[in-house]
Each structure stands twice: as structure tokens, then as C-alpha cells.
What we know:
Elements: E1 2-4, E2 7-13, H1 15-32, E3 39-44, H2 48-57, E4 63-73, E5 76-85, E6 95-103, H3 107-117, E7 123-131, E8 144-148, E9 154-155, E10 171-175
Parallel strand pairs: 3-4, 3-6, 6-7, 7-8
Antiparallel strand pairs: 1-2, 2-10, 4-5, 9-10
Cofactor: Mg(2+)
GO biological process, one term: guanine salvage
InterPro entries: HGPRT, Hxn_phspho_trans, PRTase-like, PRTase_dom
Amino acid sequence: MIKIKDLFFAPFITEAQLLSRVNELGAEINEDYRGKSPVLVAVLNGSFMFMSDICKAIDLPIGITFVKIASYSGTQSTGKVRSLLGLECDLSGKDVIIIEDIVDTGKSMAYLLDLLERENPRSVEIASLLLKPTALQENLRIRYLGFEIPDLFVVGYGLDYSGQGRNLRALYQKTEIQSFNHKKN
């Protein structure tokens, strides 16, 4: 168990499980894009650890760029997406892979897909570490998916709670347990 600010979190997905799955996704991308040079578009801030590890698992020439959009406040999606940092490269005619930490409602991803389509890429695929299928409100096709998870709040491996917990090497789920001290009678 760990505590971040006022909340407690229990282990959920280990570092070894994360890295194993990321390497599998990298191998799929290597196979699918053999002979091509895809551009990876990482969605900041949450995808930075996933982006770093998946780049190491890809043995193709790749381009890398970053965008920043926001829709969360505390532990809940607001349903409203704001663009905070835009693309810094030309995607016209290129194969693009969006690197995302988590897709829950899908509203942020739908917003980003709309923005990217205006850049006239040859193709756009989504690589998401996590998906909450029961929270999904948009019709999205996630080509490279790490894990489907229940509709719960997680931190670690890039994901945060109020700016903290991103540096944890594993994923942790929010729990209702309020104390580390368990007294025995």
C-alpha cells in the first residue's frame, strides 16, 4: 500500500508485467511497420514512461513528437478537453501512432484524432497502455492495447493523482482502506 496526498493505493500491475506487455506491443509495431518510418505522437504528461519504454522496443526509424491535452480534474474526467501543447512537426502523408497512457471515456482521444486528421496523415493508429471499456463513450479502435482494466482510478508509470505518483514503476489502484495501521485484538 502507498499513500499519495489524501488517498491510498494498492498494487495493481507490476513493473515486470508492464514492461513485458510494452515489449510485446513494440514487437507488433515492428512487424506492422517494417520498411516504414512511423511518427509516434505521445500524449503528455501521462504517456511519458510508456513512450520511453515503447521507443526502446521499436527497432525502426521513428519520428517522435508530443502533444498535451487535458480533461482530468482530481480523479475524474471533466468531459471537456483542452489543448495545452500542439504538434511540432508535419504529419502530412506519414504513418502516425498515438501513444496514450489511458483511454477511459475516449473524449480526449476523439478530440486528438480530429486534430490529427486535419494534418492529412497517411494513417493513424492508437497505442494505449490502458483502456477502461466500461467507461468508453466514443467509438475508437485501439490497435495496440496494453491492458483492459475496470473503471477504477490508477496511478504510477506516468499516471498521476494531483501531480504525484507519475514516477512509480508499477501501477497502483485507488483503495478505500484509510490506514496502514491494523491493530489486532
